[in-house]
């Protein structure tokens, strides 16, 4: 078996990848990149750690051809390396899959049944698996689930107030972004071990956004639910919405199921509210009223959820921002903390605008900005599941 792990995060028109080697604590990154525009005008971007970035057009027309392009580049850049296993980000594991596992035909069939619960992610995750299995028929393919970190919630944090048979049949709050939250929990144990044992809220704010309440490094509750639509507004997803409004859209507006799905998943959130863009950077640069209101809505929902999750935890010992917006938007972070001094949250303006690792005022409750690394988490799980060196514990 080779000693390298390839991680794959396949989307509808892109494949992100990273190559890792075992190391003492965390898997060591060797290279990373992605193919964008699959099915349209594909382009390939990659960089060996410490080297220059490569940006070229490619003729990859589908996921299988894209995997081939990635492998050809890796073979050229790392001629002596052999890939021992491939790790895949799988958004939804349902009730049956709560830990990383080697993929077989039965698991793939099971995971395809979950496609309707994550239509923007699951089918494309599995397309990446199909392509990688064809390219590496003898290498273990390991599924790493975004829902796994949240399994084990209490009944009150998992259930919907529907007839009990729905809960028994798996209609529950699954939660997502679990690989990101698990990475943050582990890193926190290394860098802030006392804080890691306490009551922590982690805000994963990106094009997809959610918040997780943790106690002693374990998920207690999270804002996303049965699907990846619930909770915070996101780049193009609506977030929390009155079920009665969904009924109205179906019955009085006459939307079809496909039209409703497209509306809630791809035309709502920051994009829908701003009428401009789903990109927070563009919204912050705009002077339009709609852009300002979209940001204000996003920030207000985050504050509301932090308050609710603090109640669930019975108090708060620290707040962590992560993911693209969480790590790089001082405006959003300051807006979230504004009017939350009652909770002990006070921001240091200079530390915030410089994206410092700790942005709380001296003596106040810790507010941290911590970069997430889902790929390293996938690589670590893959090494363990495939019987290679497991590094982070």
Describe the structure.
The model has no long low-confidence stretch (mean pLDDT 91). The protein is globular. The chain is of the alpha/beta class and 393 residues long. The protein is built from 16 helices and 13 strands. Strands 5-4-3-2-1-6-8-7 form an 8-stranded mixed sheet, with helices on both faces. A 5-stranded mixed sheet has the order 11-10-9-12-13, sandwiched between helices. The chain starts with a strand and ends in an 8-residue tail after the last helix. α1 (63-77) crosses α3 (122-135) and α12 crosses α14. The protein has helices at 63-77, 105-112, 122-135, 155-158, 164-168, 178-191, 193-196, 243-251, 257-266, 269-274, 280-285, 289-313, 323-328, 330-337, 349-353, 374-385, and strands spanning 4-10, 15-21, 28-36, 43-48, 53-57, 83-90, 101-102, 141-145, 199-205, 209-215, 218-222, 318-322, 367-369. It has 2 domains: 4-145, ATPase, nucleotide binding domain (Nucleotidyltransferase, domain 5), CATH 3.30.420; 193-369, Nucleotidyltransferase, domain 5 (2-Layer Sandwich), CATH 3.30.420.40.
């Amino acid at each position: 078996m080779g000693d390298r792990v390839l991680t794959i995060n396949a989307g509808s028109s892109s494949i992100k990848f990273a190559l890792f080697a075992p190391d003492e604590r965390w898997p060591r990154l060797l290279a990373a990149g992605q193919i964008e525009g699959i099915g349209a005008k594909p382009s390939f971007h990659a960089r060996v750690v410490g080297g220059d970035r490569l940006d070229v057009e490619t003729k990859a027309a589908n996921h299988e051809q894209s995997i081939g392009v990635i492998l050809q580049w890796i073979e050229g850049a790392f001629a002596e390396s052999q890939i021992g296993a491939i790790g895949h980000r799988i958004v939804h594991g349902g009730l049956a899959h709560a830990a990383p596992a080697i993929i077989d035909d039965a698991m793939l069939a099971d995971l395809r049944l979950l496609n309707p619960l994550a239509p923007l992610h699951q089918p494309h995750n599995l397309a990446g698996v199909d392509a990688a299995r064809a390219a590496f028929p003898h290498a273990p393919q390991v599924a790493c689930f975004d829902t796994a970190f949240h399994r084990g919630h209490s009944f009150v944090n998992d259930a919907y107030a529907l007839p009990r048979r729905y809960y028994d049949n798996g209609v529950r709050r699954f939660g997502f972004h679990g690989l990101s939250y698990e990475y943050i929990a582990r890193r926190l144990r290394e860098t802030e071990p006392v804080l890691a044992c306490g009551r922590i809220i982690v805000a994963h704010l990106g094009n997809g956004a959610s918040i997780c309440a943790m106690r002693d490094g374990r998920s207690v509750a999270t804002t996303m639910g049965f699907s990846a639509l619930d909770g915070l507004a996101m780049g193009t997803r609506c977030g929390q919405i009155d079920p009665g409004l969904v009924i109205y859209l179906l019955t009085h507006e006459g939307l079809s199921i496909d039209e409703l799905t497209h509306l809630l998943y791809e035309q709502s959130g920051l994009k829908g509210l701003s009428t401009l863009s789903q990109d927070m950077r563009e919204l912050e640069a705009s002077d339009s009223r709609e852009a300002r209101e979209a940001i204000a809505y996003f920030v207000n929902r985050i504050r509301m959820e932090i308050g609710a999750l603090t109640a669930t935890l019975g108090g708060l010992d620290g707040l962590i921002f992560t993911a693209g917006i969480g790590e790089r938007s001082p405006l959003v972070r300051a807006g979230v903390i504004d009017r939350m001094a009652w909770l002990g949250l006070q921001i240091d303006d200079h530390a915030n605008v410089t994206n410092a690792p700790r942005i709380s005022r001296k003596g106040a409750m810790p507010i941290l900005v911590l970069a997430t690394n889902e790929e390293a988490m996938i690589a670590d799980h893959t090494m363990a599941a495939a019987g290679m060196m497991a590094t982070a514990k």
